[in-house]
Amino acid sequence: MPDTMRAIRLTGPVALDELTVSHVPIPDVEPGRVRIRVRAFGVNESEVTSCKGESGPDFSFPRILGIEAVGVVDAVGDGVDMVPGQKVATMMGGLGRSIDGSYAQYTVVDAANAIPFDTDLSWDVVGALPEMLQTAHGSLTRGLRLQAGQHVLIHGGTSTVGLTAIAIAHQLGATVTATTRNPTRLDLLRQVGADHAVLDDNNLADAVRAIAPGGLDGALEFVSASALPDTLSLIQPGGNVCFVGALDGQWTISEFSPFTIPTGVGLTSYAGDADDLPVDALSRYLRSIEAGTLDIVIAGVYEGLEKVAEAHHDLESGHRPGKHVVTLPANGRTTAHQVTDPQS
């Protein structure tokens, strides 16, 4: 085995054209940890932020970026009950922020953050899943405690996690209302499982009340902290709103009053951990993707670390909804029911 690997390692903030490949030492495997040979990873907004040097205090340079990955176990440390060759997914646990991440041929993570799986889906499909599946599944099942028969709003439905949350909520037996600010994306929302697709404009609240005059059972807020008061107003007593993200970058509300929360309505948030996507849940979703009953939207697939800059550029442009996935390289066969954007 060679002593070095190819990786994108940053020593400080960089422009897109400075996301270049270098050779760095292959990381050692310590007790309780797993070394993964990376086969694919998704590109995320937090990595774009890190490139600009605008991440929070948990991030530091020098750093190999990448907060998620799929691949195969290459080596294990003492006390780890895994075998080389096992397919695994990983995310969270400081990956790509406080420890080196997945923009590399190999990455090392705590064994608890390596989720084993078995599938014949190709690496580009599986590579799209870890972060958005974990966030969508966790926010619905833990943040909202969603039950079959309930009516849920996905505010920000064409975000990567929003599209996945629509598909999962639909599979869980919920009625799903989802929003987009782009009228050309309404059909895409319906395609992945939304029962009602609504344009997010000045008439949004009235449109949702017309669909659910008695109020919604819950909502996932992906758009903005400042949208929370309006979203909360659409929920019936006993329902909940879960704040998950801020697509517009506004994560807080100045001078927020708790009395903004309607009586009897709950407000929570979801940040999540890798164990919020247990092995059985990941396996169930993989089987559904294989069967074509769970739709995953992939915006683009990029072969090789040299294409990471292109993936970042396409993500920032926002022209295509869905996940941008880098493969190293992709193998296997695709049997997933992939949804493509009809406008792209």
Automatic annotation (TrEMBL):
Transmembrane segments: none annotated. Residues 332-344 have a biased composition (Polar residues). Signal peptide: none annotated. Residues 14-326 form the Enoyl reductase (ER) domain. Residues 316-344 are annotated as: Disordered. One of its GO terms (molecular function) is 3-oxoacyl-[acyl-carrier-protein] synthase activity. It is an enzyme of class 2 (transferase). Its EC number is 2.3.1.41. InterPro entries: ADH-like_C, ADH-like_N, ER, GroES-like_sf, NAD(P)-bd_dom_sf, Zinc-ADH_QOR/CCCR. Keywords: Acyltransferase, NADP, Transferase. PANTHER family: QUINONE OXIDOREDUCTASE. This is Phthiocerol synthesis polyketide synthase type I PpsC. It comes from Oerskovia enterophila. The gene is ppsC_2.
